[in-house]
Every structure is written in C-alpha cells, then in structure tokens.
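Tip: read the tokens left to right.
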C-alpha cells in the first residue's frame, strides 16, 4: 500500500478557503456583498403587483395645497419677497417648498411604513441577511426604492408647476436633482429610525413630527414671522433646508448658502446610512 500523497499545487482549493478569500476582498466584509441590485429587483417585482392608485396617492397632497393655497389664497396675498428680496407671486413662492415636501413624502412613506411591515411582520430583512447579502446591501436597495418614489413625485409635481407657469428660470431644472437629494436624506434617515419602532403606536410618532415640520418649515410663509429663538429651531429642521434650497434654485438666486443646504442633506444621508446599516447588523447578525 502506498502512502497518501499531498494534494498537487494545481488542485482546486477547498470551498471554505475560497469563500474566506472573497470575503477579505470585499471593501466592507460582513456588511456589504456588492449585490444591492437583488434587493432592487425584489422591490420592483413587488411594486408591479401593487395598486398603483395607492402608490401615487402621496403625489396629490402637495398639488392640492398648491391649488388651494397658491391659487386661492394667493389672490389675497399678492406679491411676496422671495430669495434675494425679489418679488414673486405667492403661488411661485410656495411651489418650490411643496416640491421639497413632495420628495420628502415619497421617500418617507417607503422608508418608514413600508420598511416597518417588512421588518416586523414579513421578516423580510431577516431572510435576506441569511443569504450572502449584507446589511449595507439591504439598506442601499431599500433606500434606492424610496428614492425612486421621491423622484416620481418630484417629476410629476415639476410638470404641474411648469404647466401653471410657475417656472421662470432655467436654474429651476436643478430642483429635480435637489429633490432627489432631499428624498435621499429623508429615506436613509427614516429607515434607520424605523428600525427602532416595534408597534403601530410608535410609528404614529413619525407623523407627529412630520406634520409640524411641514407646517413650520417656512413652507407656506417666510420664517421671519417667527421670533428669533423659534427661527433657530426651524433652521435645524431638514425640511427647512430643502425648502430654502428649492426656492433659491427656482429663481436662480444661487449662493454659497445654497450649497450649504445641499451639504446638510449629504451629511444627513451619510448619518442615515450608517444608522440603518448598524441597526440591521445589530438586529440580525448577532
């Protein structure tokens, strides 16, 4: 009987060793598998089977506000000072703010209530993370789906205000990528916050914060109507930064402050992605 010979150098390596080497080559081992598109594909298949009336319902709220407040009350208000002190109609004043609100609504719906159902009832993320997907794959996929909804709302609302003659500058085209930035910030942060929610009663807290933020973020009137201490509180709200950024783009009054508003949402997105990824890892990869 001959003694067993060692495995030739050209023989294939054990599967476990190959997997370990592939893990080490990933930029974020254990967090990111580079396959967020799988989450996107699953989300798109689910959207195709939904009632499209429900999907686009969030688009109509800002449109109704524009028609009732902008065209209705606008006849009583008349001209109002916009960015840079230039006079503009009341409808043109609130339209960019409502565009920011539209992008926020689309992103928040998908990244909160939709995520809450998948997280607590369908147990979808738990199943995903039993595969090769990492928490960052899931976060990127879900946030991109929410971003697509925000883009859908923003494009539809942009068409509405253009048809009403409220687009007066080519700079206004930048409101579309700005709306995407707003949606991205709210979606990434909203998903992270939702991961802490365990009951429907806790989810109601999201609406508790969203409605006052919409009403007080200088959406329908200038922030100057508030006393200075309250202005500081409003200026800390993300929607106020979105509203100001949109208004400045709408008339081409772009300054360094405009890019600071953009930077606010970049920071919000980074923080939200970190929070979401960390929470999914802590919940399902213990």
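Filled-in amino acids:
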């Amino acid at each position: 009987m001959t003694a067993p010979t060692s495995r030739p150098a050209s023989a294939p390596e054990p599967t476990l060793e190959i997997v370990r080497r592939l893990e080490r080559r990933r930029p974020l081992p254990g967090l990111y598998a580079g396959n967020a598109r799988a989450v996107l594909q699953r989300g798109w298949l689910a959207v195709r089977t939904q009632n499209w009336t429900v999907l686009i319902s969030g688009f109509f709220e800002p449109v109704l506000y524009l028609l009732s407040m902008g065209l209705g009350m606008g006849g009583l208000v008349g001209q109002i000072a916009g960015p840079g002190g230039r006079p503009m109609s009341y409808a043109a004043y609130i339209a960019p703010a409502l565009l920011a609100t539209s992008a926020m609504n689309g992103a928040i719906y998908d990244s909160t209530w939709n995520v809450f159902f998948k997280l607590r009832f369908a147990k979808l993320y738990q199943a995903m993370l039993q595969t090769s997907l990492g928490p960052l794959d899931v976060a990127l996929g879900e946030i991109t789906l929410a971003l697509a909804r925000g883009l859908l709302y923003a494009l539809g609302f942009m068409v509405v205000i253009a048809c009403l003659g409220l687009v007066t500058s080519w700079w206004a085209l930048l409101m579309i990528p700005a709306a995407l930035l707003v949606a991205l910030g709210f979606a990434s942060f909203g998903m992270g916050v939702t991961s802490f929610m365990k009951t429907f009663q806790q989810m109601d807290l999201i609406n508790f914060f969203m409605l006052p933020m919409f009403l007080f973020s200088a959406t329908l009137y200038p922030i100057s109507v508030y006393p200075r201490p309250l202005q500081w509180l409003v200026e800390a709200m993300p929607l106020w930064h979105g509203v100001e950024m949109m208004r400045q783009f709408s008339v081409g009054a772009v300054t360094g402050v405009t890019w600071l508003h953009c930077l606010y949402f970049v920071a919000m997105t980074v923080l939200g992605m970190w929070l979401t990824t960390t929470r999914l890892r802590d919940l399902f990869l213990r």
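Residues 35-284 form one domain. The radius of gyration is 23 Å.
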